[in-house]
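Hi again,

Forgot to attach this to my earlier email, sorry! This is the prediction with nicotinamide-adenine-dinucleotide bound. I've pasted everything inline since the attachment limit keeps bouncing my files.
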Amino acid sequence: MASKYGEIVEESLNALLNDTSFLPNFSGDERKNAFTSLESILSTPNQIQKSFLRVPLENGKILRIPAFRVQHNNAVGPYKGGIRFHETVEEDEVINLATLMTLKNALHDVPFGGGKGGVVINPREFSEKELHTISKTYVQNFSDILGPDKDIPAPDVGTGEREMDWMMGEFKNIHPGRPYRGSFTGKSQMNGGSLGRREATGKGVYFTLRYMIHNFINENEGWFKENENRFAKTALNHTKRELTIGIQGFGNVGSVAALESYQCNYLNTKVVAVSDRNVTLYNGDGLDIEALVDFTSKHNGDLPTTKEALSQNGIKADIQDRADVLYLDTDVLILAALEDQIHEDNVDKVKARMIVEGANGPITLGADRKLSDEGVLVIPDILANAGGVIVSYFEWLQGRETQFYSEEEVSTMLFKKMKETMDEIFPQFFSDPFPLRQNCYIHTVMKLSDIMYRHGKLY
Ligand code: NAD
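Structure tokens for the complex follow:
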């Protein structure tokens, strides 16, 4: 069975089959063969490695923990993608996420391929010493396939700069005398990490929303007036009133996107709801995001869950169920938690007019089709959450140059790169019938196909 992104690749290739300006040198049976090659290359990974990490625990027991590294495609450059520590990690999920990385990097002209890793643990159940051993053992077990010119991991859910520092340290031990700074990104600044890496994904997520609304409405007013759909009506109103935003997930991505909204001068937005693994907090007048960020920084990343905690910290909000954020009547919903949060069984309850995918794959394909039919604008993961990998690329470059950029330089370079992609994609979106997600995929599949054709791989 094709993976989720494999299916999307197939749809994009079908849309391109009769476009003779795409792969113009192929016709007839040769063209069919080229498309079959493309589909099989892009919908299957080059390599899946699974290993059991042998980890002695502090209580004397020994665990064998399943771990994965999937290398999807390296036509554009070394494999690149995060390592996730989460109890629900499984092989198919890692394959999907690795495929998305190939497509995302190509879309944004980042010279990397796609990879992803995962370890099946709930990191909250392990001590720091045990997490250190898990991180080191991961590198030992996959060391042959990792490296600055082979495959460069980064943080993902459940991992951060601490784990990347440990992993890079172990890589250096295993490969003495070899270049090591570019072996992992998302490291601490002391260890060669880039300024602005932690904030990059959340900033990029908000930037895509801001750029779509602030820069494209006036130029495309005709389109918005013709399209009497949920998104168009909301977007046209943005200068007359504040746009309300709900955010699922208040971790690295969600909390930074919330802060960007709180501090943004370009768009009139207010965050009325945020959620995490425990609760949704709602305030129709707008939440005090700075106070919430301050609270989470002191409470292991968690939002306040009781009235007492809210009042002690001067935060005004109603406490609701954690899933409620998905169904609130907001203009914008930013999904910044996990996969498959909006699916066939709950999509009918979603009222937001625009959705920005900060997380990878937070909407299932079926739910996505339904949202698109109803005229909800979805700014897809491949476009919206690329900030992290873009700044990871800057970190890798800085490691090579042993020259470091200021935070302002990193932000400027990040926004420039994302703007270049959006300037290619958005005008096309306003002039053809495809949803934004499909537009992005058609675009990236065309780029990858051209590269593979030039590599002589389409036969
Ligand atoms: P994180 O671990 O920092 O934060 C995750 C947040 O989601 C936390 O607030 C957590 O409480 C919440 N959460 C967990 N389970 C939940 C549930 N069942 N319902 C509601 N909320 C829940 O992770 P992050 O780095 O912010 O990543 C979030 C998403 O963004 C992931 O899908 C990740 O793959 C994706 N992403 C992250 C980056 C990055 O640079 N961090 C880059 C691209 C994509």
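The pocket of nicotinamide-adenine-dinucleotide is lined by residues 156-157, 201, 248-254, 275-277, 322, 336-338, 358-360, 385, 388 (CB under 6 Å). The chain is about 45% helix and 15% strand.

That should be everything now.

G.
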